[in-house]
Write a structure and sequence with these properties.
8% helix; 19 strands; seven-stranded antiparallel β-sheet; globular; 234 residues; single chain; 2 helices; mainly beta; ten-stranded antiparallel β-sheet; Jelly Rolls
């Protein structure tokens, strides 16, 4: 039985929704512009190195019970969730960030049977449902990105004073650190456990983890580094 979990609710167990067929999971379109220049062969290619959102249509049906009440419950669940995690049972190790965007039309086929389509607007990538936190205690250690594109990690640096952190070719200088600083590449922000902004202590670009091996090095007084990798796939 194919089902999906959205906003913490299971489509079949919680609402009795039956998925008619396995949905297609499209890859995102890369944003590339082509510019024609007079007198020049071919086109000038401008690659933004970003991707567009995707849409996933799920064909569903429900039967038995009080259809009117059940339909109201389904609508309340899907539309009140906003953007939430979407996980399909046939690939439960990955999730989408999705939101329902269509007005759902419940077409009654017989007295106790209704069909409808749910259209999810999804961010371009699939994300790991669960991420292990990596703890690094030795400079020069490596972490393997198991995803298909660069990830946006959340890095916690435990140390004191001035620290230079290097991941592959990216260097970040941390100034006057006291105990711990969190470098969040997802929201492009730096802070401590109290949520206090520490961007003034950071100089350099936010760190990404490329597919394959990523070498983590540092200089300065560092006891350990913890990395929540946030693996992603196209």
């Amino acid at each position: 039985m194919i089902s999906f979990n959205f906003a913490g609710k299971d489509s079949y167990k919680d609402y009795g929704i039956i998925i008619s067929k396995r949905p297609n999971l499209p890859s995102p379109k890369r944003r590339v512009s082509y510019i024609d220049i007079p007198g020049r062969d071919s086109s000038l290619v401008y690659d933004e190195e970003t991707y567009e959102n995707t849409t996933i249509g799920v064909e569903c049906k429900i039967k038995d019970g009080n259809l009117i009440d059940k339909i109201d419950d389904i609508k309340a669940w899907l539309f009140s969730a906003g953007e939430s995690d979407l996980i399909f049972s046939f690939q439960d190790d990955k999730k989408y960030r999705a939101q329902v965007v269509n007005s759902i039309d419940f077409s009654q086929v017989v007295k106790i049977f209704s069909e409808f389509i749910i259209i999810f607007n999804c961010r371009p990538f699939k994300y790991a449902t669960y991420n292990n936190v990596f703890t690094i205690v030795e400079s020069g250690s490596s972490i393997i990105n198991v995803g298909s594109i660069k990830s946006e990690p959340i890095i916690s640096v435990y140390g004191e004073g001035n620290i230079e952190l290097t991941v592959n070719e990216t260097k970040v200088n941390l100034t006057n650190i006291k105990d711990k600083i969190i470098l969040n590449s997802v929201i492009q922000d730096s802070y401590n456990d109290l949520g206090e902004n520490l961007n003034n202590k950071v100089k350099g670009e936010f760190i990404y983890l490329s597919p394959g091996s990523n070498r983590v090095e540092w200089t300065g007084n560092v006891s350990k580094i913890k990395i929540l990798p946030n693996w992603r796939w196209l």
